[in-house]
Amino acid sequence: MISLALRELESSQVILRSEFAEDLPLVQGDRIQLQQVILNLIRNASDAMRDIDDRQRDLAIKTAKTEPDGLLVTIQDSGPGIDPTKLDRIFDTFYTTKPDGLGMGLSVCRTIVEAHGGKLWATAAGPHGAIFQFTLPVTGDDPRLRSY
C-alpha cells in the first residue's frame, strides 16, 4: 500500500519512515478491505499535513506483534493533530474535519477492522500530529477469510 501512496506522498513533500517488525504472523482477512484501511489512513495523514509549513511533514508507519496473538499497525503524522474534544466523534459516520470531506472514510475503516475482529483508535501525538492504530487477530475460523 505504501507503493501506491508513494507518489502522492512525495508530491506533498512527506517524509515516510517505516518500521516493520520481522517474523510477523499471518493475519486472516479480506486483503482488499485491509488494504483500503491502510491506504485511507495514509491518505488522511498526508491530507492532515498539507498545510504544514513550519516543520517537517513526517509520516511513520510501524507494525508490531501484540500479545497474545495479534498484530498492531501504527500510522503517525506530524500534522495539526485532532482536537481532543472531537476525538470521540471522528469515527462517526458523516462526521468530518475536512472542508471537502464526506465523513465516511474513518467510519468504514473502523467497520472493516472490527469485522476482522480488531480494534481501531486514534490518539494525539505530542507536540504535533495524530496517531491511528489498529489491531488484528492472527487466528480466526471464518472460512471466507484468507491468510495474508
Features:
148 residues; alpha+beta; Heat Shock Protein 90; five-stranded mixed beta sheet; two-stranded antiparallel ribbon; 3 helices; 7 strands; 28% strand
Structural write-up:
Helix content is 26%, strand content 28%. By secondary structure, the protein is α+β, with helices and mostly antiparallel strands. A hairpin with a 5-residue loop joins strand 5 (119-124) and strand 6. Helix 1 (2-11) packs parallel to helix 2 (31-48) and helix 2 (31-48) runs antiparallel to helix 3. 26% of the residues are buried. The mean pLDDT is 85.
Write a brief structural summary.
This protein is of the alpha+beta class and about 150 residues long. Helix content is about 25%, strand content about 30%. The chain is built from 3 helices and 7 strands, in the order H-E-E-H-E-E-H-E-E-E.
Write the topology of this structure.
Elements: H1 2-11, E1 14-19, E2 28-29, H2 31-48, E3 57-66, E4 70-77, H3 105-115, E5 119-124, E6 130-137, E7 146-147
Secondary-structure class: alpha+beta
- Classified in CATH, the superfamily is Histidine kinase-like ATPase, C-terminal domain
Rg computed from alpha carbons, rounded to a whole number of angstroms = 15 Å
CATH topology: Heat Shock Protein 90
What ranges have pLDDT less than 50 throughout 5 or more consecutive residues?
none
Q: Which architecture does the CATH hierarchy give at level 2?
A: 2-Layer Sandwich
What is the percent of helical residues? 25-40%
Give the beta-strand count.
7
Overall shape: it is globular
Distance between the termini: 14 Å
Beta-strand residue percentage: 25-35%
Strand order of the largest sheet: 1-3-4-6-5
Order of helices and strands: HEEHEEHEEE
Number of helices: 3
Overall number of domains: 1
Mean pLDDT: 85
